[in-house]
Amino acid sequence: MRNLLLMATAGGLMTAAATSASAQNQADAYYPPEEMAAARETLLEEAGGVQMFYFQANRLEYQARRDSDELVAWDVNAWYGGRVNRIWWKSEAEYDLNRGAFADASLQALYSRAISPYFDLQVGLRQDFEPDPMRTHAVVGIQGLAPYWFELNGALYLSDQGELTGQFESEYELRLSQRLYLQPRVALSWSAEDIPELEIGSGIGSTTAGLRLRYEVLREFAPYFGVEWSRTFGGTEDYARAAGARTQDTAVVAGVRIWF
Predict the structure, then answer these.
(1) pLDDT of residue 111
(2) Fold (topology level) of 53-259
């Protein structure tokens, strides 16, 4: 080690790392291999190998619609894993307070792998509990952040009956102050074929567009209120009319966003 230091001082242009063909960086010339191996292991663990758990109730809300229709809706997700590989759980549901029953309810279990610094590829299963009859789907999706920090989430679903459907969602958070955020959200669903049992028509079936104003009492606890508009299209709209349901609706929403 002393000779290496003398060479670096006397030669000026010759570095200690250059004297060893096996050196990966300058520090390898000064520290024992076992110490460098331990340091690199710690760096890998802290930079990407740590296993973490995250839970978020992105939407946990009460919706008041026209004609006194009232719903409780949630959009909840959680994941466990590292920066590259994760296991995701996602659940969405709407509970009709007037009927005392779920209008929609689903649960997804997905394996997620980072395919870029901003996007993950996800594959897994989705179970629909409502509406009846229930369906089980294979899922392939992509989730991440587009330029300008738009959150994107799109997925294809192939049911156990061979039906191909899909969903796309996008959200954006506009910061108005350190604690106040305005969050636009749009969602769209489509189907490759008619599914009479579920009153779904081929093509674009429905879309929703919402605007929520959120105040972060804590970063992990943020109540909000807003408005959401929804509409059905095509064959799905025809099914809704035949059942005497509205083809478009507007709801006032109030809820809370929680994460830990």
Answers:
(1) 98
(2) Porin (2.40.160)
